[in-house]
Amino acid sequence: MDISNKIKQFKKTGIEIFPDILDKNTCKSHVSELEKILELRKSKGDYVGDQKNLVLYNFFEENLNLSSLITLPLINEIMESLIDEDYVLISNQAKNRTNSQHFNVNNKSNGIGWHTDGRFVGKDQLKPSLCYTVIIALEDFTEHNGSTRYIIKSHNKNYRPKRNKNYDFSTLEMSAGSIAIMDTSLWHTAGPPSKKSRWSVFNMYGPWFVKPYFRYYDMFEEKKIMKFSRLLHKLLHFGSNPPLNQNERLATLKRVGL
Ligand SMILES: O=C(O)CCC(=O)C(=O)O
Ligand SMILES: [Fe+2]
């Protein structure tokens, strides 16, 4: 695969698919792990999204094996090229846009209606986009199972779409095991939910100085942190948390070491 050509293409369109990166059995086993985590979180009354949009933030918290979905070598290569080697994870969610039966939750969830995942200062969306969204299809994405809809090249605009307007759109179609990278300025929305399952992972990566959605530093016990790979450690901001004070260190980025 010619990654640099695909990245060039990505910069033009705002979205690019990398087909068949994970094998189907790996996808199936990840889906069954996610289903277990869903049941566990439901039984504890934890946040799991809503009836039409199941959302598991930090899905690797209960099962560190799932962190391989954060640290995939292909994603690493792409992010090092798009950002730099100090890039970090900004957010991560396993999502299933489906009509789920059997339980009743009235939470809020996100990603429904036209939006961007970009960052704004005043009314202007920052350009170039600071962050990139990676979508991993663990099940097929088709036009019949709530696949993400997007507007090609809309990442060049610096304002927000109207959430409920009828725009012409493309549907993100890819088979289980495929990955898409999306510019966070691209206009997109989840498709309408169906009975068919659509487990997937939405990770957002950005430069080291962008705040993560969660305080990973406080989320995990020391024992667990010791088990993190070097890459996961860096991605979860352990190398870029600000020091306690000026006596501990001056540089925010530990690698710089002042
Ligand atoms: O579920 C989807 O297809 C879209 C999700 C999304 O856009 C988001 O979480 O920001
Ligand atoms: Fe989004």
Kindly list the characteristics that best describe this protein.
binds 2-oxoglutaric acid, binds fe (ii) ion, alpha+beta, globular, 12 strands, Jelly Rolls, 258 residues, 22% helix, three-stranded antiparallel beta sheet
Entry summary:
This protein is of the alpha+beta class and 258 residues long. 22% of the residues lie in helices and 19% in strands. The chain has a single domain (3-256), classed as Jelly Rolls.
Your description of this structure?
The chain is α+β, with helices and mostly antiparallel strands and 258 residues long. It has one domain (3-256): q2cbj1_9rhob like domain (Jelly Rolls, Sandwich), CATH 2.60.120. The protein contains six helices and twelve strands. The chain has helices spanning 3-13, 24-44, 73-82, 216-219, 222-225, 230-235, and strands at 15-18, 49-50, 53-57, 88-96, 120-121, 124-125, 132-137, 149-150, 170-171, 179-183, 188-189, 199-206. The strands form three sheets. It has a seven-stranded antiparallel β-sheet with strand order 1-10-7-12-4-3-2, with helices on one face. It has a three-stranded antiparallel β-sheet with strand order 9-8-11, with no helix packed on it. It has a two-stranded antiparallel sheet with strand order 5-6. It binds 2-oxoglutaric acid (AKG) and fe (ii) ion (FE2). 2-oxoglutaric acid binds next to loops. Fe (ii) ion (FE2) is lined by residues 111, 115, 117, 188.
